[in-house]
Amino acid sequence: MEAGRRADRAKGGAALAAVILRDADGHARAVVKGISWRIIGTLDTFLWSLLITKQAFSAGSIASLETVTKIALFYGHERAWRLVDWAPNAHVRSIIKAVTWRLVGSLDTFMLSLLVTGSAKYAVSIATAEALTKIVLYYLHERAWRLVKWGRLEAPPQPEIAPAASAASPHA
């Protein structure tokens, strides 16, 4: 009887460890994915800011500030989308994620650009230009990450259920 309880506790502990590791992998994937996107996004922001303001310092300031704010925002966006079970491998999901992220990202870019330049005209121009390029860039980034299996959270395997003990069993 005691051996059975120990075996059950061991199975429970192993299941808990698997959930913790699986969840930790999901967090690690979101962090690495966020960093890879941030590199692409920061370069895009810097280039658009430079083209629009023609001021390297302002462009660098906007891109630098954005690096900090967008990593946190992107991580939250990824974790929120993890709660949505709908069509995890579908192209349409990637498109919808790209649009929702761009809404969040463009608002952030607008606010940072306004803060750095003091110009609503520059802020609107930078945020608008990014909205056009970054939806495409994000979609391509999202599709590329669907090819990476590391850290992907899929539906957990269903536990095997042992057959019920028969009344005719000698151990019943």
Describe it.
This protein has 172 residues and is mainly alpha-helical. It has a domain of 118 residues. Helix content is 77%, strand content 0%. It contains 4 helices and no strands. It is elongated, with a radius of gyration of 24 Å. About 6% of the residues have low confidence.
Break the fold down into its secondary structure elements and pairings.
Elements lengths: L1 H52 L2 H27 L8 H27 L2 H27 L26
Task: Provide tags for this entry.
mainly alpha; about 170 residues; about 75% helix
SSE order: HHHH
Helix content, binned percent: over 70%
Into which percentage range does the β-strand content fall? under 5%
Shape: elongated
C-alpha Rg (nearest Å): 24 Å
Give the CA-CA distance, first to last residue: 13 Å
Q: List low-pLDDT spans.
A: 14-24
Task: Provide the structure class.
Answer: mainly alpha
What number is the mean pLDDT?
81
Number of strands: 0
Number of helices: 4
Biggest sheet details? none
